[in-house]
Specification:
By secondary structure, the chain is of the alpha+beta class. The protein has one domain. Helix content is 31%, strand content 23%. It has 3 helices and 7 strands. The strands form 2 sheets. It has a 4-stranded mixed beta sheet with strand order 1-5-4-2. It has a 3-stranded antiparallel beta sheet with strand order 3-7-6, with helices on one face. Helix 1 crosses helix 2. The protein starts with a strand and ends in a 15-residue tail after the last strand.
Length: 159
């Protein structure tokens, strides 16, 4: 596991990105992928995701893009890397039916002071290693436990 501390300034960038993402989602009438209790809950989800994308981009030595409104057309980092953030350290990588399976997915855990890179997996392998479930009542997806992910040390840093 790789731990990447973040700064107050990086948190502010993530918060601003989250605000834009939430505003765009509301304008377009997008339904959240998971049940959210309030706008504040949705903003937290967007903030955690933006912060994870920012730190992974930096770790990869890539330009931070924090894309808005791309909705799966553009990968989070470079041309084939998706970043997934969980708010529990034992969280699972979730791959939905409309997620591109030709991309690599990095699972992260965002804590109060750092982003931990928990592991990675090619999208198509989620269908083999994951368990089909619908715990949130939204849509079924593939849930891959951390013990079925590759170690971050094995991740090839190319784009």
């Amino acid at each position: 596991m790789i731990t990447l501390p973040y700064t107050f300034q990086e948190m502010l960038v993530a918060v601003k990105s989250a605000e834009v993402r939430q505003y765009e989602a509301e304008l377009l009438g997008c339904k959240d992928r998971m049940p959210v209790k309030s706008v504040l809950d949705a903003l937290e989800i967007h903030t955690v995701g933006a912060l994870a994308e920012l730190k992974v981009s930096q770790w990869l030595g890539r330009k931070v893009q924090l894309a808005h409104g791309t909705f799966k057309d553009v990968a989070d980092c470079g041309h084939d890397i998706e970043v997934r953030a969980v708010r529990k350290e034992d969280g699972k990588l979730v791959i939905r039916d409309n997620d591109p399976t030709d991309r690599r997915y990095i699972l992260t855990y965002v804590s109060r002071c750092s982003v931990k890179l928990l592991g990675w997996l090619e999208g198509y392998l989620a269908l083999e290693r994951g368990v089909r479930a619908n715990p949130g009542g939204y849509k079924e997806a593939w849930f891959v436990s951390q013990d079925k992910l590759w170690d971050m040390e094995s991740f090839e840093r190319y784009i």
